[in-house]
Amino acid sequence: MRDDDALPAKADEYGRKVSPYFDIADKEAKYKADKLFKRLRRKVGHAIGDYGMIEPNDKIMVCISGGKDSYAMLDLLLSIKRSAPIPFTLVPVHIDPGFPNTPEGVVKRHLDRVGLDYFILKRPVYEIATSKVPEGQRLCSICSRMRRGFLYSTAREIGANKLALGHHRDDILATFFLNLFYSGIMKTMPPILRTDTDDLTVIRPLAYCRESDLTTLAKLKGYELLPKGLCGFGENEERAAMLRMIRQWEKEQPKRPDIIFKALKNVVPSHLLDRNLFDFSAISQGPRVK
Fold it and tell me: pTM for the whole thing?
C-alpha cells in the first residue's frame, strides 16, 4: 500500500467477515434487496461457470468506477467467494482520473464499509486527455484507453492475474449494435479475454445481469455513487442511443433483448458470409437449399 493510497479496511483473507448487505432499516426493502441479490448471484455464478472466469488461487483486481455496476459486482463476488469451493483473492481498485468537481471520499467511504484491503490511485487521465484533444471535442476514446492502460499496469504492480470489469448484459448488447451499425463488424464485449500481452485475463462477471436489476439493487441498498458526466461531456452519445433502444425494446417486447443476447451465444458460421469462419468454397454441389 503506497503512501498516497487510501488506508485499507481490515478483513480476513477470504472476506468471511464481510456482509454483502449494508444496513437497510426498512424490512420490506431488505427483503426485496435480498431476493434480488440472490437472483443476481445465481446469474453471476452461471456466467463464471460457463466461461471459466475464476480458477483456484486467482488474484482478481476488481475495478471500481464509483458506479452502481462495479459496486454490485464487488458485493456479488464477495458473496460467491464465501461459499466457493476454491480459494481466490479480491482486491478492489479505483482509478481517480482527476475529473473536476469530483466529490471527495465517495468511493473511499463505500470501500471502507465493504471491509477489504483496497487501492485508490490518482492518475492524470483528465489532464493528459484535455492536453491532447482539441477544445470542445469529446474525450471518451482517449480517456477510455488511458484508464484501461492504468488498470492493466496497476494489476501487474499488485500481482493480480485477472481484472473484473462491471459490464452487464445491456453493455454487451449495446457494444454489439455499435459495431454492427457504425463499424460493419459483428463483435461485442466477450465475457472473458486475454490482453494483447497475454499476461492478464479480463473477466466480466455481470455478463448475464440486466442493467435494470442492477439499478434497482443500488437503490435498495443505498449505494453512494459518483455523479455521471464529471468530465463535462456526459455519456457517449452513440452508446447512450443504443442503450435507450434496448430499454425501449424491453418495455415494448420484454423478451427481445434476452433473445438477441441468446443469439450471440448461438452463432452458425455456415449461415453467415464470413469466409474466414467457414470454407464456402469447399461445399460440394448438391440439391438447392430452399
Answer: 0.87
